[in-house]
Write a structure and sequence with these properties.
elongated, 15 strands, 22 helices, alpha+beta, Nucleotidyltransferase, domain 5, about 525 residues, six-stranded mixed beta sheet
Length: about 525
């Protein structure tokens, strides 16, 4: 590379009265170069006072206009358009170079090779002060993590402090950040923070990069496939994304969110350190206000801000959100379907197709729905009964077997069975229903009594009920009747001392003398 003549230095020394020979000897500059500078200055009528405040490069271009400027013989693409296209999914420099070659093939202009094309693009990136698109792609990845630094809530009555954890998400392309305060780091909280994050971004991405925490990754063996948490995998599938856990002890795999976590500490937590928050809602609002300011701060080494780059370039590339937001669910495994064709959950009963009676099924529970699965196949679904409702049946007619023989258990059906057994059995069943606060609570104890007729016959059960009713037990149950039948007391009609003692006594009974003191 030819070294440029230090024209300003030569002219400064000339202004000080040095000759061309002295300048050449003192600074090792060719006398021909010095003479060339003198001639150019004299032709342009330039003096030292006019150029004293200019830079070395400005003086050189003023003395030798046009010298050193390189005009490429190659056809130049629109580098701004190249940079914009490179942000799109699947677009690479190789593809854009091929299109550039095809566009100029008909003009006959020489075109750059791929290596020169890449070098000139990188030079354009440096001169324009923007970030190269060769690394991250817009709308392709979101990195998530928990923040190490935490915040606090203060109870206004007791002044007790409660720790608040911060969920952090970041889109690496625009560095657009998201922060959500939570009271714990449990599974449902982790999933709920993801739902809030996608709604904040107003779109989803194909890849979610997380740490190897238990709420995200169940197992990470040295060899073999990574085992993801089932609920986390379901959430990712709902938003059309894949979970890509970072390597263990490799923070560079999610460097963007690691950097955002550090910024959250300095831009969000620190400015709010002197404020006291009594509710999670107030804290969330304050955090989002600070977060908006953080996202709008100008970049130091590239044009724009996180918000401007996100709005102009990344937001249009995000995938649209599903019509319905992901609903957090809980899985319950291995529930056996009862003989009445229902499974029990939260003290309520939900019907299952009659073909599954006796089989084990899995339940997926959400805030509004109870779904029933046999393996990977969903066999039933019900609206979840309210939490304050217990011992209620939710039954689909399609789950019942064909024909008129199948009926749900209710009070009338149970009393009809008791009437067939005998009047004493009917009285026992009436007393059971009278002893419970909710009619449905009496179903199981009443049926337990009536099923004794299958083992011991109607006559013996009715006789046992008569013996139990003659005792001091106000509402006989299975536990009272089974000993009578096992010992055969119903055949004699008499209560043995053993049974009488079990019913009539409830511990040691002290006489009046004990409480009145010694008699006189």
């Amino acid at each position: 590379m030819v070294r440029k003549i230090q024209a300003k230095l030569v002219l400064e020394l000339r202004a000080q009265g040095l000759s061309a020979r002295a300048i050449a000897a003192a600074h090792g500059i060719s006398r021909n170069s010095i003479a060339e500078v003198f001639d150019a200055v004299d032709r342009a009528y330039l003096d030292w006072d006019r150029i004293a405040d200019l830079s070395e490069d400005e003086v050189y271009h003023l003395v030798f206009p046009g010298r050193g400027e390189h005009i490429s013989v190659y056809a130049q693409p629109d580098w701004h358009a190249v940079h914009k296209e490179l942000a799109r999914v699947g677009v690479t420099l190789k593809l854009l170079h091929n299109e550039y070659v095809d566009d100029h093939a008909a003009t006959g202009q020489p075109v750059m090779g791929y290596d020169r094309f890449c070098r000139v693009y990188q030079k354009y990136v440096l001169q324009a002060g923007i970030t190269s698109r060769v690394g991250h792609k817009a709308g392709q990845t979101v990195e998530v993590d928990w923040s190490g630094p935490t915040m606090q809530l203060v109870d206004p009555v007791t002044a007790k402090r409660q720790k608040v954890y911060l969920f952090v998400g970041c889109l690496p392309f625009s560095r657009y950040g998201f922060v959500e305060p939570t009271l714990d780091m449990q599974q449902n909280t982790w999933l709920g923070a993801h739902v809030a994050m996608f709604e904040f971004f107003d779109g989803s991405v194909p890849r979610i990069v997380c740490d190897n925490l238990k709420t995200g990754v169940t197992q990470r063996p040295r060899e073999g496939e990574v085992v993801l948490n089932a609920a986390y995998r379901e959430l990712a599938g709902h938003y059309g994304a894949a979970v890509l856990p970072a390597r263990i002890r490799a923070p560079k795999d999610k460097s963007s969110v690691e950097n955002t976590v550090w910024h959250v500490a300095t831009e969000v937590i620190a400015p709010l350190r002197n404020q006291t928050f009594h509710s999670l809602g107030d804290l969330r609002q304050a955090i989002h206000e600070r977060l908006a300011e953080y996202n709008q701060e100008p970049f130091q080494k590239r044009a724009g801000s996180r918000s401007s780059v996100f709005a102009a370039e990344e937001c249009p590339t995000l995938r649209p959100l599903p019509a319905v937001a992901y609903e957090i669910s809980e899985w319950v495994y291995g529930r056996r379907v009862a003989r009445n064709g229902h499974i029990t959950w939260a003290k309520n009963y939900y019907s299952v197709p009659y073909t599954q009676v006796g089989e084990k099924v899995d339940l997926r529970i959400t805030a509004t729905v109870v779904e029933i699965y046999r393996g990977s196949q969903r066999v039933g679904s019900h609206l979840r009964l309210p939490a304050e409702v217990v011992h209620q049946y939710a039954t689909h007619e399609s789950d019942l077997p064909p024909g008129p023989g199948y009926q749900r258990w209710d009070q009338d059906r149970i009393r009809a069975w008791a009437a067939r057994v005998g009047p004493n059995a009917e009285t026992v069943i009436d007393r059971i229903f009278a002893s419970v606060a909710v009619i449905e609570q009496g179903f199981d104890p009443a049926l337990a009594v009536l099923r004794l007729a299958r083992r011991f016959s109607h006559q013996r059960l009715d006789a046992a009920c008569a013996i139990a009713l003659a005792s001091r037990v106000p509402s006989p149950r299975y536990a009272h009747l089974r000993p009578i039948l096992d010992s055969g007391q119903d055949k004699t009609g008499e209560i043995t001392n053993h049974y009488h003692d079990a019913i009539d006594t409830a511990g040691y009974v002290r006489g009046g003398d004990y409480y009145a003191g010694e008699s006189k």
